[in-house]
């Protein structure tokens, strides 16, 4: 039953290998939300952790009870999918997301909710102005990515990657997340709301104390691919065919010219074109690249359609563990 209170809030936390953080996280949420004057729930999604995260969450639920809901995924589906699982289960009019590693500070949430309502936003993005992560490995790539995304998409934010965000649920639920798309949520949200309804606010950020970051250089590559996809969808979503059609025509013309030249070399100048194998290789590679790009875009379009029409589930839930008495939510 969705609560009718305009400030009813669902806090979604994806967790993978956060056994050491889980209980403390739930405790901090309760401290941060102690004076929250509307119904709220925290939805912890265990993303197939092998390290006892689920057990820790169940203990936390025993201790804190009624506000805590646990979604157990069948295996590790990744942060984006875990977030989507939590969002699907959210009953609040507002949804907050944050990381389960205590790097975001739950104390920021009530203030952010007030700010979102005050500024009449659909999304309030946290901005880790004092980010406590490795400079070269994490902060620098993020900086470049943020600049790129802002430029490409026209959604001007400083820190897309900050998980701490507050949304209006009805708007967020119009977006389906997949891949590593949690990094670009504001961009997708911008697709369903006006730019002036997306804002940002500076938030606290702590260094990771327990456990370790799941992201290394290998994920950076996937992010680049996702960034490309974001780019193509924003630029060419109406007529992607036109763009690739033009490339096709251009390459075709080029190929035609090359072929004419080769034929001329053979029949007019009487030389043997078998002496230019590199040429064939070059053409072959060009054509192959084109094929790959085109196929990639088509696949990307299909993926998008698949997930966007709400049926494509990129995760499987094993179990939902509700608190014994769901009282506080209904009877507030
Ligand atoms: N996470 C997840 N599934 C994964 C990887 C990460 O649910 O496959 C969660 C993780 O537990 C954390 C959040 O996503 O709550 C962000 O992950 P992490 O702290 O490793 O990323 P970083 O802060 O280093 O970007
Ligand atoms: Mg983290």
Automatic annotation (TrEMBL):
<dbReference type="GO" id="GO:0009103">
    <property type="term" value="P:lipopolysaccharide biosynthetic process"/>
</dbReference>
<keyword id="KW-0472">Membrane</keyword>
<dbReference type="InterPro" id="IPR001173">
    <property type="entry name" value="Glyco_trans_2-like"/>
</dbReference>
<keyword id="KW-1133">Transmembrane helix</keyword>
<feature type="transmembrane region" description="Helical">
    <location>
        <begin position="243"/>
        <end position="269"/>
    </location>
</feature>
<dbReference type="GO" id="GO:0016757">
    <property type="term" value="F:glycosyltransferase activity"/>
</dbReference>
<keyword id="KW-0328">Glycosyltransferase</keyword>
<keyword id="KW-1003">Cell membrane</keyword>
<keyword id="KW-0808">Transferase</keyword>
<dbReference type="GO" id="GO:0005886">
    <property type="term" value="C:plasma membrane"/>
</dbReference>
<dbReference type="InterPro" id="IPR050256">
    <property type="entry name" value="Glycosyltransferase_2"/>
</dbReference>
<keyword id="KW-0448">Lipopolysaccharide biosynthesis</keyword>
<dbReference type="Pfam" id="PF00535">
    <property type="entry name" value="Glycos_transf_2"/>
</dbReference>
<keyword id="KW-0812">Transmembrane</keyword>
<feature type="domain" description="Glycosyltransferase 2-like">
    <location>
        <begin position="10"/>
        <end position="175"/>
    </location>
</feature>
<protein>
    <submittedName>
        <fullName>Glycosyl transferase</fullName>
    </submittedName>
</protein>
<feature type="transmembrane region" description="Helical">
    <location>
        <begin position="281"/>
        <end position="303"/>
    </location>
</feature>
<dbReference type="InterPro" id="IPR029044">
    <property type="entry name" value="Nucleotide-diphossugar_trans"/>
</dbReference>
């Amino acid at each position: 039953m969705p609560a009718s209170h305009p400030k009813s809030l669902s806090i979604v936390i994806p967790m993978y290998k956060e056994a050491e953080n889980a209980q403390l996280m739930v405790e901090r949420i309760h401290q941060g939300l102690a004076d929250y004057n509307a119904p709220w729930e925290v939805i912890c999604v265990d993303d197939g952790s092998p390290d006892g995260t689920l057990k820790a969450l169940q203990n936390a639920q025993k201790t804190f009870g009624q506000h805590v809901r646990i979604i157990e995924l069948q295996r590790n589906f990744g942060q984006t999918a875990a977030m989507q699982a939590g969002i699907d289960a959210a009953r609040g009019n507002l949804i907050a997301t944050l990381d389960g590693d205590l790097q975001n500070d739950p104390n920021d949430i009530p203030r952010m909710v007030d700010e979102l309502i005050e500024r009449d936003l659909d999304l309030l993005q946290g901005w880790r102005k004092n980010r406590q992560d490795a400079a070269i490995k994490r902060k620098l790539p993020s900086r470049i990515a943020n600049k790129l995304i802002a430029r490409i998409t026209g959604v001007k934010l400083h820190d897309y990657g900050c998980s701490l965000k507050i949304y209006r649920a009805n708007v967020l639920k119009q977006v389906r997340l997949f891949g590593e798309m949690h990094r670009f949520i504001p961009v997708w949200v911008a697709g369903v709301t006006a730019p002036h309804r997306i804002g940002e606010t500076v938030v606290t950020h702590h260094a990771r104390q327990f456990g370790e970051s799941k992201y290394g250089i290998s994920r950076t590559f996937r992010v680049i691919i996702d960034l490309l996809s974001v780019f193509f969808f924003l630029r060419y979503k109406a007529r992607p065919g036109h763009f690739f059609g033009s490339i096709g025509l251009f390459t075709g013309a080029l190929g035609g010219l090359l072929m004419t030249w080769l034929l001329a070399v053979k029949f007019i100048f009487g030389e043997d074109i078998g002496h230019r194998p590199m040429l064939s290789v070059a053409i072959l590679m060009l054509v192959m690249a084109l094929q790959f790009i085109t196929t990639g875009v088509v696949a990307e379009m299909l993926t998008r359609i698949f997930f966007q029409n709400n049926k494509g589930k990129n995760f499987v839930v094993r179990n939902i563990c509700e608190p014994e008495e769901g009282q506080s939510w209904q009877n507030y």
